[in-house]
Amino acid sequence: MAHRSLSRFSRRSRKSVHLGLQGTAFGLGVFGIWAKFRGKDGIVANFYSLHSWMGLLCLSLFAAQVLVRFLVFGFFVFGFLAIDWLITASPSDF
């Protein structure tokens, strides 16, 4: 929605807004799970509904998606930069 509703702005601005919204959603989700775990009745007692378990699953999958995205991005970008540096480096650089 951030990309469609902000179509008159630059691509970089839209991506920044999208990143901010995703970060806010993740932060609020982590705060919600933290509040559930901090309850006085114990951990599982606060997760008695399917809605709670689905929220935990959704937040876990979102965190896994972000982790994999950073690993893949880091591998391709920094891996290719390292390969390029190794190919173009002169022997005196080592």
Structural account:
- With 94 residues, this protein is mainly alpha-helical.
- 74% of the residues lie in helices and 0% in strands.
- It has one domain.
- It is flat and about 65 Å long.
- The termini are far apart.
- The model has no long low-confidence stretch (mean pLDDT 80).
Count of DSSP strands: 0
Q: What is the mean pLDDT?
A: 80
The low-confidence parts are: none
- Count of DSSP H/I helices: 3
Short structural description:
The chain has 94 residues and is an all-alpha fold.
Question: What topology emerges from the helices and strands here?
Answer:
Layout: H1 2-5, H2 11-37, H3 50-88
Helix pairs in contact: 2-3
Main attributes?
single chain; 94 residues; mainly alpha; 74% helix; membrane; electron transport; metal-binding; transmembrane helix
